[in-house]
Amino acid sequence: MDAAVLYEANTPLKIEDVEIGEPGPREVLVDLKASGVCQSDWHVVKGEWNNCLFLRF
Question: What whole-number distance in Å separates Cα of residue 54 and Cα of residue 13?
Answer without folding.
Answer: 13
